Amino acid sequence: MLGAIGRAFKTPDLRNKLLFTLGVIVLYRLGSYIPAPGIDYAQVQQCVANPQLNQGAFGLVNLFSGGALLQLSIFALGIMPYITASIITQLLRVVIPRFEALHKEGASGQAKLTQYTRYMTIGLGILNATTLVSTVRTGALFGNVEGCQDLIVNDTWWGVLIIVITLTAGTGLIMWLGEQITERGVGNGMSLLIFTAVAAGFPAAFGAILTSQGIDIFLIVVAVGLAIVALVVFVEQSQRRIPVQYAKRMVGRRMFGGTSTYIPIKVNQAGVIPVIFASSVLYLPSLIAQFGDPEAQWVQWITEYLTTGDHPVYMLVYFLLTIFFTYFYVAITFNPEEVADNMKKYGGFIPGIRAGRPTEQYLSYVLTRITFPGSLYLAFVAMIPLIALVLIDANQNFPFGGTSLLIIVGVGLETVKQIDSQMQQRHYEGLLR
């Protein structure tokens, strides 16, 4: 492995890309610890270290920001506004014909959609920054723990405005850094920044398990974690290959077509998005309950059943939501009708299946059947941290499972593949022999 890394750094072009990517990652992590202006940093550190702290509804955002949210740093919002904007842009293709037309225009249309995503990211950044400042002022960010209410030194309108502008600018800077990695570095920039933020929490999670549970439980967790990683890698690489043949056709005096290929349909076609959707939907009731009357019956019901991950009702709802959003997102992102039309346009067909409507029905049939085990797999991986919460009293950020594990494995595999392909172009051998 060390020899493979050495070969990668011996290639000047690839070495420059790797060093540039590592430099941006270091800059991103450094910004996660620079406090926003007007924040009592010493008091924030005491609140973060408080053993009574319950991240609650802000756990997912804090995970994607690499802990910067609770640090109230300039990168407190992390990459979440951009992720939300990208998902909204994808969903709007279904309801806005203009977006669907841009998607079909190729590179120029994708550039326009990317521009819309950037504008939406800034708008969501302003909204999220305003919401974050409001929760800090009320003390809800740290679960109303005593001493964590007065964290803003200058609590005037212009002091709050400076904080909102700084957090929004931090989101814009993260978006720009991610795009720079994509253009000048290795891998997808946004995915690598998410990977960095999630991986940054692993040492603290391991340390907490070792300190609270002892060396025996720690070694068991590591062994089980490695087995889960192997399972996730196996499933993430699994795909159903639908054979496609293209008929020969004459264009002028030249013959085109006559080739065979396949349509790869992954078992986990939806990626990590369904888990994020399910987590976000489950966080909404607890977030709303924080602003309600604690004595109200509906607030008490939410607090009892939908706040802690060790309750059976919470687990069941989380499991079913993950399955639902898997089917929903696959239906949004993979359009059998569009694939069938493109195949028919270029003279392609599935052996034994007529082109047009029968091809669309066949693709829908295969997609529905392969999505079912994929949804169960995602629901199982998402439930691992909740099961660990019950068995070993681990916290919600249990390292092996849920969103964090899917991101670590998925982004890691794609980045290694890209490095491997670049090395094969230059040395005729990949990263690993």
TrEMBL record:
S-adenosyl-L-methionine: is it a keyword of this entry? no
Q: What PROSITE patterns does the database record attribute to this sequence?
A: SECY_1 (PS00755), SECY_2 (PS00756)
Q: Which InterPro entries match?
A: SecY, SecY/SEC61-alpha, SecY_CS, SecY_dom_sf
Matches recorded under Pfam families: SecY
Annotated keywords: Cell membrane, Membrane, Protein transport, Translocation, Transmembrane, Transmembrane helix, Transport
Q: How does it sit in the membrane?
A: Multi-pass membrane protein
Localization of this protein: Cell membrane; Membrane
Bilayer-spanning residue ranges: 18-36, 68-95, 116-136, 156-178, 190-211, 217-235, 312-334, 374-392, 398-416
Coiled-coil regions, chain positions = none
Q: What is its main location?
A: membrane
- Establish whether keyword Nucleus is in the entry: no
The record's listing under PANTHER family reads:
SECY/SEC61-ALPHA FAMILY MEMBER
Function (record text): The central subunit of the protein translocation channel SecYEG. Consists of two halves formed by TMs 1-5 and 6-10. These two domains form a lateral gate at the front which open onto the bilayer between TMs 2 and 7, and are clamped together by SecE at the back. The channel is closed by both a pore ring composed of hydrophobic SecY resides and a short helix (helix 2A) on the extracellular side of the membrane which forms a plug. The plug probably moves laterally to allow the channel to open. The ring and the pore may move independently.
What subunit structure does UniProt give?
Component of the Sec protein translocase complex. Heterotrimer consisting of SecY, SecE and SecG subunits. The heterotrimers can form oligomers, although 1 heterotrimer is thought to be able to translocate proteins. Interacts with the ribosome. Interacts with SecDF, and other proteins may be involved. Interacts with SecA.
Q: Which family does it belong to?
A: Belongs to the SecY/SEC61-alpha family.
Which protein, by its recorded name, is this? Protein translocase subunit SecY
Recorded source organism is Brevibacterium pityocampae
Read off the lineage from the record. Bacteria, Bacillati, Actinomycetota, Actinomycetes, Micrococcales
Name the gene that codes for it.
Answer: secY
